[in-house]
Structures are given as structure tokens and as C-alpha cells.
Amino acid sequence: MAPSPRDAAPGLQEQMNEISEAVNKTIMRLLPESDLPEAPLFEAMRYGTLNGGKRLRPFMLMQSAKLFGVDMARARRAAAAVEFVHAYSLVHDDLPAMDNADLRRGKPSTHKAYDEATAILAGDALLTLAFEVLSDVETHEDPRVRVELVNLLAKASGPHGLCGGQMLDLIGEKQEFDLGTISRLQRMKTGKLMAFACEAGAVLGKASEPMRKALCNYAYDLGLAFQVTDDILDVESSPEAMGKDTGKDAQAGKSTFVSTMGKDQARARAQMLVEQSKRHLHIFDNGRADTLKELADYVLQRRA
Amino acid sequence: MAPSPRDAAPGLQEQMNEISEAVNKTIMRLLPESDLPEAPLFEAMRYGTLNGGKRLRPFMLMQSAKLFGVDMARARRAAAAVEFVHAYSLVHDDLPAMDNADLRRGKPSTHKAYDEATAILAGDALLTLAFEVLSDVETHEDPRVRVELVNLLAKASGPHGLCGGQMLDLIGEKQEFDLGTISRLQRMKTGKLMAFACEAGAVLGKASEPMRKALCNYAYDLGLAFQVTDDILDVESSPEAMGKDTGKDAQAGKSTFVSTMGKDQARARAQMLVEQSKRHLHIFDNGRADTLKELADYVLQRRA
């Protein structure tokens, strides 16, 4: 079974489902089925994106936009863009030359369902589409907002973000990393895209600099907590519950938070990071940011 | 030996070398060497970009910008961005799962010099960097110009451009294509990025719509002529002269202009397309576009 948002507080759960559905509709509209000869590319793009998934990043983006009264319809395109980048990174990371993962979200990974060439191209095309969607005049956004979103997303995804993080991850198969390097790796691989999601909501809402910063810091701490719990789940959970192979880090000889500090310390660390992430949100009064705080707790408690 | 601009008229040759050098400097500045643990990613990005190459697309961009009096320093960043996208597409196309090419520009292709995972990531990072470079506030361009360039580049590179073209190309290994489909494939795979290069110069120069259109049409015809001559060179030339394996299309069973219409007809077609491409430039008076016309002739006569 594919993992779906669950184990979340009922109110949070409902909001996550709602936003997930809304963003999926936008994604489907942006990835129409095709009867062109190159249709397999479009199918693989849909397959890599619409196969379940918790839609955490779109949720962060939409909730952060909501803090500033941004119209949800406006935020949905940007939310789809961040999910395209996330999906592209999973499609490429799963390739045989990379993490060689046959399962993703409980189903064959994209290169298994199609073939390697199609998966490489579908990833490339999803990444490109993210920039097209953000920059498009159809968004009716101020060009200043559009170009800032593009630039932030590019910085979060490039050699100093996602790509650099994945490179480090691969190097980690042959080399032992200390805690500092593991943290830097995960900040690049997970934190930066989550920070983009939160910051994008603030950019759409023309938020003040301190509020932007607070949301970024929230995302960085939460991203790290997310990764620490991922490492714990990788040793504790089953492929059935996770929807992907487990125990792969140890198998690949990768240094993780768990291998470096042990399970108990890792759990304490995740707890500490979640508390810290929530504290950044104190800048928002009257419980405005309560949903994002609940999301942080959910990340800690999730079982998949 | 890596192919370099040659067989061009002496004046054109000199200008191509000059622009090639200037753009290479910009590329090197945008891809600094790194002493971070993930340095192999940066090295592979440099390797995939700075390994010779004719720099045709940067040349088109710079020449088109020059038509409208755009400062060359301004145009160089955009020229580097289009070359990043071109380089990324070559790095990914050469992968074993795609065209499985061991040689590129007379040297081992990126996945041979590094490894497959690094090549995939270097391609991803180059594509992302192109969007970062175009959108960056450092360009000092009007946000409207920046976001338009990003959107045009994304459209030229995504599922309806480069990625779609490469998908069609792979499908062509298993399926015979008629001339219409081959032309559409090549328009996507080669024409769109060249059209972006020419149009970007016009966007930087805030050119009139008819002039923009003329430059795009020039690029589409020239791109097709380029591809037809490429197909001819693939059957006529040697790996030594081309700096890459030849005869690969026939080996892969791909339908090409040569396999579909024969060498003589293909040659006549290329000639016709080059004449047609030059005619689009009649809108520019006083010989202003003569260099672009000479470039068209060069494409026809090149031997590598």
C-alpha cells in the first residue's frame, strides 16, 4: 500500500488530504495526457508525480501562503512546481546508477514501470516544467514575484541544493561522514527544498523579511527532523509500511544519523529539532501558525 | 582532436573564436572549482561544458543581441545559460541508457570520465544552473526580461522541446518515422534551443515582434539544416573528424533525413533550408545580419 498522510491529528489529516487533492488536480491539469508519439514521456511524468506521496512540500507552501492571506488558487501552481521538483529528484535518485530502488510509494519506481531512458527524460522534463510553471505569464503574478520564485527554486535544486546533496549522499557510500557532514548533506538534500516551499508562500504574500526568515528556519529544522526520523524508520519499519525498500542505508554502507549517534540519541535529536522548528514560528501570533506546528509534530510521529 | 570552429570564412571564424573565448570565461566564472566534499559534481559540470564545442548557440545569442545594440557583457550570461542547457542535454543523451556514446568532442563522454551517477547529477545541475543564471538579480536585467527568458528557455527545453525531442529520438530506434515526424523531432531537439538563443538576443534588445519572429524562423530553418548535415556527416565522416562516434544512427536503426530521402536529396534539402533561413533575415537592412547569414553558410559547409 502506498503511504498516505496518516497518524496525523484529525484536523491536520483533513487539511493535508484537502490540499493534496487540490494540488493533484493542478498537477493533472499541468500534465495532460497526450496522443503524440512521445506520449510515454508524458505518462512517465504523470506516473512519477501522481503516485501517492504525502505532498508535504505543497502543504508547507500552501500553509505558509495562507499565513499572509494569499489566495489558495494562486498558491496551487507554485505548490505543483515544488512537487514537480521533488518528484524529479525521486525519479532520478531511484535510477540503477544512483540508489537503485525498485520500489517507490509502494509501486515500481519510474524506471521499472517504464525504462531507464524514459525515467531520465521524465525527471529532466519535470524539473524543466517546474520553472516553466513558476515563470509563466498565466500565473498572473507580478514578474518580480515570478522571477524571485524561479531564482529561489533554482538555488534550492542546483549544485548547492538538491543535486549537491544527492552527490554527497553517493559519496557517503564510499566514505564515512561525521555528524556535521551528514547534517550538511541533509540540509542540502531535504532542507533547501522545504525551505523553498515555506519561503515561496512568504514571497507570494510579500511577507516581511523576519517572517520569511522564520519560515525558512522552521523548514530547515523540520527538514532535518524529517531526515532523522527517516533514518530511524529505515532501520525500524518494513517495506510494506514505508512503500519503499528499507534497510538500504546500512546495506549501502551509508553514514546516517542512526549509524552515527544510535537510535535513542537520534530520536532525542529529532524531538529537539521539532521543538526548535516550532519555536521559530512564535513570530506569528494568535495561533496563526498552529497548523505548521502540528505538521512538525506529525513529522516526528509518522510511521511511514 | 575536438572539433573547433573551422571551415568558416576567416572573418566569421575569428568572430566565432572571440565569442567562444568570452563565453568560456563567463562559464568558468559561473562554475568555479570547489574544495567541498561534493567537488566531483562541480568538476563533472565543468567537464561537460568546457570540452571544446563550437558554441553555436552562444554565438547565435550574442549575434542576435548585437543586432539591437545590446551590450555584449549583458548578453554573455544568457549565452552561458543556453550553453549549460546544451551541455546538459549532451551529457544525458550520451548515457548508456540513452544513446550510449563513449566519445564526445574527441574525449570520453562525461559518464566515462566520471561515472553514470555523477553524469546524471551534473546534467541535472547544469540545467538548474541555467535557470538560476537567467533569473539572478546579479544580471541587473529588468525582472520582466529575466522572467521572460526563463519561460522561453523552459519551453524550449521541456517536454515540448529538448526532452520531447530526445524521447522521440529514442522511440525512433524501434519505429520507422516518416519525414514529417523526423522534421518535428529535430525541430524539438535542435530547433527550439537555437530559436531560444536567437530570440533571447531579441528579448534582451527589446526588439519588435516581427524581428523576433524573423530570428526564430531563421533559427528553426538553420537548426533543421544543421541536423540534415549532421545526418550526412554521420554516414560520411570519421570519428576522428567529428570527435564522436559516427554511423551510430544506422546502427541504432534510426530513421534520419539520409535514410529517408537519400544523401543527394538530403544535401539539396539542407541547401534549400539554409537559403530559406537567410531570407528571414531580409528584415534587417544594411547588412546588419550578415554575420548570421554567414553562419548559415558555415553550417552547410562544415565538415565536423
TrEMBL record, chains A, B:
<dbReference type="InterPro" id="IPR033749">
    <property type="entry name" value="Polyprenyl_synt_CS"/>
</dbReference>
<dbReference type="GO" id="GO:0046872">
    <property type="term" value="F:metal ion binding"/>
</dbReference>
<keyword id="KW-0479">Metal-binding</keyword>
<keyword id="KW-0808">Transferase</keyword>
<keyword id="KW-0414">Isoprene biosynthesis</keyword>
<dbReference type="GO" id="GO:0005737">
    <property type="term" value="C:cytoplasm"/>
</dbReference>
<dbReference type="Pfam" id="PF00348">
    <property type="entry name" value="polyprenyl_synt"/>
</dbReference>
<dbReference type="InterPro" id="IPR008949">
    <property type="entry name" value="Isoprenoid_synthase_dom_sf"/>
</dbReference>
<dbReference type="InterPro" id="IPR000092">
    <property type="entry name" value="Polyprenyl_synt"/>
</dbReference>
<protein>
    <submittedName>
        <fullName>Geranyltranstransferase</fullName>
    </submittedName>
</protein>
<comment type="similarity">
    <text>Belongs to the FPP/GGPP synthase family.</text>
</comment>
<keyword id="KW-0460">Magnesium</keyword>
<dbReference type="GO" id="GO:0016114">
    <property type="term" value="P:terpenoid biosynthetic process"/>
</dbReference>
<dbReference type="InterPro" id="IPR053378">
    <property type="entry name" value="Prenyl_diphosphate_synthase"/>
</dbReference>
<dbReference type="GO" id="GO:0004659">
    <property type="term" value="F:prenyltransferase activity"/>
</dbReference>
